[in-house]
Specification:
mainly alpha; two-stranded antiparallel ribbon; two-stranded antiparallel sheet
């Protein structure tokens, strides 16, 4: 909203009003305001949650420091959501289709997570919202995002074409026409554009239509997978919030370079007009997650709950899809996917061994993966991997997972030139 006010003042030659035309300036303001809001309202929301006795129910997993968390206020993801929405409404271009989709995604998944937490806390149902309802809601959001990308005339790209001399890239040029495309950036290869059309090329004349069906399905899978992976990762103080903030930095950079034709040409990636506005949203996202860590860092004064974790993961998934960088997510979200994979492997191996030997066995001492490092090894748990034998302090696990994410983010960004 302030963007439009200062845009009007700029037309009246008001001194300094023109600064609001710069994405970088508005991104800085958004990040600072989001951080400020999270810190200020965070304290008030925590007080309200404590008065309402909205505390976390702790199950007995025999983990170090587990019972000290009992009664800690949950549903703190509300802090993150408010801290994202308010700054983006003030500093973003609200007619930008990318910003609109990100706001819808934030509110949609925030509502889903809030409903889940509400059932757990107020209805005293440990399972929360039924899994099928969560999946339906996540699939619904993926369907909305995929169809809007297909139908909206504002979501277009300009394809990058290499000009080679003696097999050396001398220049990168873009077509004059803005086109709908199902192409995406793929890491580590010279021709770094992958087109989903290649998956349905056997369909001949129907391929151009069928490819969008494939694309929408991919969007649904990504939104669902990343959202649920972030939800599984939210098990230690500051873990999911810190990782999400780090990934947000990478996505903000990718959005900015994708929306700038000069940087896009330098990196030899597709140019996406209008996507630079997503940098403002990413800045608000980063500010909100860092501000939330003020209260969520070890020892946590509040937990984000599913209200926060489902929202953070969904935002990351939708954001990556909008800038056609979804195939970088396995790298950027490596920790999220390791957490999910650990659960899948654990459950699969347990069922397999139970069927084969009559008794279920485990790969890890406990999943998701971060809990494996909290468990004591050789302590009556029949797991293939017993190390570390001594439980690691929670804060150490969190910081190491943050460091792994930083390494993966740097690697993910580097892949744009490593080909």
């Amino acid at each position: 909203m302030l963007y439009y006010l200062f845009n009007y003042l700029d037309q009246l030659d008001f001194p300094g009003a023109g600064m609001f035309q710069f994405v970088t300036f508005r991104s800085a303001l958004g990040a600072v305001l989001a951080l400020f809001i999270a810190i200020v309202i965070g304290r008030k929301i925590i007080d309200i949650l404590q008065k309402k006795q909205i505390g976390e129910t702790i199950r007995n997993y025999d983990l170090e420091g587990q019972y000290s968390k009992r009664g800690t206020p949950t549903m703190g993801g509300v802090i993150i959501i408010i801290s994202i929405i308010v700054p983006i409404l003030l500093f973003g271009k609200l007619e930008n289709i990318y910003v609109i989709l990100m706001i819808i995604s934030t509110i949609w998944l925030g509502t889903l997570g809030f409903a889940d937490d509400y059932i757990k806390v107020f209805k005293k149902d440990k399972e929360g919202l039924k899994g099928k309802f969560k999946i339906v809601a996540q699939v619904g959001l993926g369907l909305i995002v995929g169809l809007v990308m297909y139908l909206s005339p504002d979501i277009v790209t300009r394809q990058n074409t290499e000009v080679r001399v003696n097999n050396v890239i001398e220049d990168v040029r873009y077509g004059e026409k803005e086109l709908k495309t199902t192409q995406t950036t793929i890491p580590f290869v010279k021709n770094n554009n992958f087109d989903y059309n290649s998956l349905v090329s056997f369909m001949g004349d129907f391929a151009d239509k069928a490819v969008w069906v494939v694309f929408v399905v991919v969007v649904i899978l990504i939104v669902t997978a990343v959202s649920n992976s972030a939800n599984l990762t939210d098990g230690l103080d500051g873990l999911a919030g810190g990782i999400s903030g780090i990934i947000g930095v990478a996505l903000g950079i990718l959005a900015y370079v994708s929306g700038n034709v000069n940087f896009s040409a330098y990196l030899n990636i597709m140019y996406i007009p209008g996507s630079e506005e997503l940098m403002v949203f990413a800045a608000c996202f980063i500010g909100a997650t860092v501000g939330f860590l003020w209260y969520n860092a070890y020892p946590a004064q509040v937990f984000m709950g599913d209200t926060g974790s489902l929202t953070l993961g969904g935002i990351i998934g939708v954001f990556a899809v909008l800038i056609h960088k979804e195939l970088l997510l396995p790298i950027l979200c490596g920790v999220f996917f390791m957490e999910s994979l650990s659960v899948i492997l654990q459950v699969g191996y347990f069922k397999y061994t139970k069927k084969k030997y009559g008794e279920g066995r485990r790969i890890f001492k406990m999943t998701p993966l971060h809990h494996h490092f909290q468990k004591k090894g050789n302590d009556g748990i029949d797991a293939l991997i017993q190390k570390p034998l001594t439980p690691l302090p929670e804060s150490r696990i969190v910081i190491r997972f943050w460091l792994v994410t930083i390494i993966l983010v740097v690697l993910g960004l580097a892949t744009l030139k490593m080909r």
